[in-house]
């Protein structure tokens, strides 16, 4: 039949067309992914966040909810990403030093494929939300270093980013 995969996990069928990877033969396993990133900003911006002085509301609380919601909708945002039933999304946003907010997402599921994209999406959207809520006072903020730091489960088992 035209369009069948050529074998293995690939995003291309036998004719070279993009397809969603078929994971139906993979066993369900517990999966975890941890991603991190940061938003660098002027010290006055971080102090305003800490003091609750941003006119749009609780920056870190709103960014946390935005990141969790984004993780749940990753398949709608990233082409060919599998829709997953997430069992847990934990998002921490922590002021760091005098000029940054550090963000960490921990995403869990039990299924045939991992949740790396969900964790990375959660961090990305949380960082964008911080930027959006604070841009009126600091357009020079930088979203930096969004990366996967850990994944567990599946055939490849445990992976951790080098320190």
From TrEMBL:
Keyword Ligase among UniProt keywords: no
UniProt binding sites for substrate: 80-82, 117-118
GO biological process: Mo-molybdopterin cofactor biosynthetic process
Location of the active site: 132
Keyword Coiled coil: no
GO molecular function, one term: cyclic pyranopterin monophosphate synthase activity
Domain named Molybdopterin cofactor biosynthesis C (MoaC): residues: 20-154
Gene3D superfamilies assigned: Molybdopterin cofactor biosynthesis C (MoaC) domain
Enzyme class: lyase
Keywords from the UniProt entry: Lyase, Molybdenum cofactor biosynthesis
Catalyzed reactions: (8S)-3',8-cyclo-7,8-dihydroguanosine 5'-triphosphate = cyclic pyranopterin phosphate + diphosphate
Pathway(s) annotated for this protein in UniProt: Cofactor biosynthesis; molybdopterin biosynthesis
SUPFAM superfamilies linked: Molybdenum cofactor biosynthesis protein C, MoaC
EC number: 4.6.1.17
Similarity section: Belongs to the MoaC family.
Subunit: Homohexamer; trimer of dimers.
Matches recorded under NCBIfam families: moaC (TIGR00581), PRK09364.1 (NF006870)
Function noted in UniProt: Catalyzes the conversion of (8S)-3',8-cyclo-7,8-dihydroguanosine 5'-triphosphate to cyclic pyranopterin monophosphate (cPMP).
Protein name from the UniProt record: Cyclic pyranopterin monophosphate synthase
Lineage per the UniProt record: Bacteria, Pseudomonadati, Pseudomonadota, Alphaproteobacteria, Acetobacterales
């Amino acid at each position: 039949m035209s369009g069948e995969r050529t074998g293995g996990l690939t995003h291309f069928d036998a004719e070279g067309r993009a397809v969603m990877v078929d994971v139906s033969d993979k066993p369900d396993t517990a999966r975890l992914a941890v991603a991190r990133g940061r938003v660098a900003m002027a010290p006055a911006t971080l102090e305003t966040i800490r003091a609750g002085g941003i006119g749009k509301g609780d920056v870190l609380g709103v960014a946390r909810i935005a990141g969790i919601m984004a993780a749940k909708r990753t398949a709608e945002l990233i082409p060919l990403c599998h829709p997953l039933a997430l069992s847990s999304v934990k998002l921490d946003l922590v002021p760091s030093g005098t000029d940054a907010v550090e963000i960490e997402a921990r995403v869990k599921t039990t299924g045939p494929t991992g949740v790396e994209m969900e964790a990375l999406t959660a961090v990305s959207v949380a960082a964008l939300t911080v930027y959006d809520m604070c841009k009126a006072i600091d357009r020079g903020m930088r979203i930096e270093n969004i990366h996967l730091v850990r994944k567990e489960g599946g055939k490849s088992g445990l992976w951790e980013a080098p320190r």
